[in-house]
Amino acid sequence: MSDRATVPRGRHAPPLEVRLSVQRGRLLEAAAAEFARSGYAEASAEAISRAAGMSKATFYEHFANKEECILALFDLAATEVLRAMAEGTAAGGDDPLERLRGGVRAFLEILAEHPNESQTLLVEIIGAGPRPAQRRDEVFAHFAAAIDAENAAAAQAGTVGRVASRDDAYAIVGAVAELASRQVRTGIPADVRELEPVIERLIVGLVAAPARA
């Protein structure tokens, strides 16, 4: 299918930056679906561009190769998850438990709403090669830093205990990612949102109760 059928040309065409943004969005959406359906190893630029209703040449205008495509998709998914979690945490106000619940709930909701992107974020990126694996480690470290900072602020206010180390924060990220990955891969539990109490117990268990006078 040609690009002409999906992106207007001539005097009716939108500005170039708009067209490129629309094309890139369609390609990333198609890539998420293709990675989820076929797996990263079997997916191809041709299949992705065909699913997006574009030519393979258009795919290569946006991405040098399949690896660059999954990296872009992973970065987008991680950014959206972090944004949703920050909003969910903030909605909890000053109560540390409600902030925890808000962040966890937002994380699980966005996974449930975007299953294809979730599979890229949690599953396909692992087997995509050294660069994607490194990017995953970097993003996980960013998540861990956010958890550590949230805990530090609450501990300073005296409402919770302090996690023992930054490694404890990273352990939370790794454990939550594995729980969510298993759900994406196996459908256990049936709905990823059922993991909310498990994750809450996990995090609370690593935070010591505040000392009492």
Would you kindly provide a written description of the structure presented here, covering whatever features stand out?
With 213 residues, the chain is mainly alpha-helical. It folds into two domains: 3-62, Arc Repressor Mutant, subunit A, CATH 1.10.10; 66-205, Tetracycline Repressor, domain 2, CATH 1.10.357. It has nine helices and no strands. The N and C termini lie far apart (71 Å).
Question: Which terms summarize this structure?
Answer:
Tetracycline Repressor, domain 2, disordered C terminus, Arc Repressor Mutant, subunit A, 0% strand, mainly alpha, 213 residues, 69% helix, disordered N terminus
> Element order, helices and strands?
HHHHHHHHH
Stretches where pLDDT is under 50 for at least 5 consecutive residues are 1-5, 209-213
The CATH superfamily name of the largest domain is Tetracycline Repressor, domain 2
Number of strands: 0
Task: Summarize model confidence as the mean pLDDT.
Answer: 89
Level-1 CATH class name of the largest domain: Mainly Alpha
Question: Nearest-angstrom radius of gyration?
Answer: 20 Å
Level-2 CATH architecture of the largest domain? Orthogonal Bundle
Structural class of the helices, strands and pairings? mainly alpha
Termini separation comes to 71 Å
CATH topology of the largest domain: Tetracycline Repressor, domain 2
How many separate structural domains? 2
Strand percentage lies at under 5%
Largest sheet composition: none
- What is the helix fraction of residues, given as a range? 55-70%
List the total number of helices: 9
